[in-house]
Specification:
Chain lengths: 304, 174
Amino acid sequence: MPHFFSNKRLILLMVGIIILVILVGLTMREREQATIPEQIMRDSVGVVQSVFQRPAYFVRDIYDDFVNILNVHEENERLKGQLNDYAMLRSEVDGLREENNSLTSLYEGMESLSSFDTIPALVIDRQPDRWTETIGINRGTQHGVETDMAVITEEGLIGRVQYTSAFTSQVQLLSDGERTNRVSAKVSSEEGDPAVGFIEGWDVDQDLLVLQKVDSENELEPGQFVSTSGLGGLFPADLPIGEIVDVQVDEYGLTQNAYIEPSADFFHLNHVLVIERNVDNIEGIQEEFLQQEEEEDESEGSDD
Amino acid sequence: MRYLLPAFVAFFFIIEGTWFQVFFPPSTEQDLHWVPRFAFVTVILISIYRGSRSGIFYGMGLGLFQDVVYSTVIGIYTFSYALVGYMAGFNFRAVQSRPFVVLLIVVVAVASLESLIYLMYTWTGIAQVTFEEFAATRLLPSVVLNGAFGILLILPLRKFFLMLEDRDRQQENV
């Protein structure tokens, strides 16, 4: 610390702190879009990162394959056990598919809330300090990625696109603790309407996702599956999120919280899919929905 | 030769977010957060051997990239890397020729960086952990990991710095 407390340096430090406070204050809020210089920096670093990341995944895949070979016997036993259920499941699926086809044709060919296209992407980096949970992917606005799109792996939902630039984007994982990071989710039950709530935050002690604000009239049980509801935003319906492991009534007793074991592995991400919802369909469905409501209102009015 | 030093820092910066995350992925089983600060350790060594002026510039540049590429809030890393990079500038012969003293400075710098980041993230509301938890799950692993990296890096980098100095001197004489 040579001459640290001399006047000139102290003034510089003060100026530094003031600039820090201003910068942090400006960038803290949830912004819709990162600024152009930021985008350029991210894109140029992203190119180098992809160059680094591809051979790393190659080596990692070889290592994983090697470990898999060691476990192959155990896995074989387990799969044999599962195969017994397969035949039954298959006949059931055939039946359901037929039923579904006939019902959709009745519905005049309208596509559902869950139709979407996917954009495959490679994970090029992960936030190393882990105060915030974000990853970078090598697809950007040039490839059709937009802010708030859902990002999934084969196993389930992992997060949403937070910032986009031309060739890369930043994805906020579900495990990120930021307050604005929430997803509308539903718990499907065999009878009745699905229970709807919000995935809000990550329970650090148990390493589980928390589903909040579920009406306490709905009966939740461990083992039920949770998926996206498709209500609001760019998330289509029925993307798997996870499985309930614990249910608790919240502090006011009006709603309940469920703890969810995510079905996707948030720690071994290399290939992900960005989901582009078919927007025309959403509008179509909304119009249809509004029309139905109007008709209902009219019929109610005529009753009086 | 002149561009080798920034290239080193850039290389370690890229490694932190890519290779390290692929080969040592975090998992739910372990609570410890092993956060690599390899590029920062390199900046501290630059500050010790090349003077605190270099330290502040390299720190600011690296911090800006760290902020923009990996996080959403800009300023936190830019400020703390530059500040700690400047404070670590003990460029005396007596320090430079003793690797153990250099290592001690690196360890103290990493610890104060982590604490500074923790303080700022607490103020901005991004981090919501108690100091005890922070010390056990982040501070300690970070000091161990980056201290170990420092041990590997100090001697080869010292040779490189001595070579740079020789070159500078020759150029002055010519």
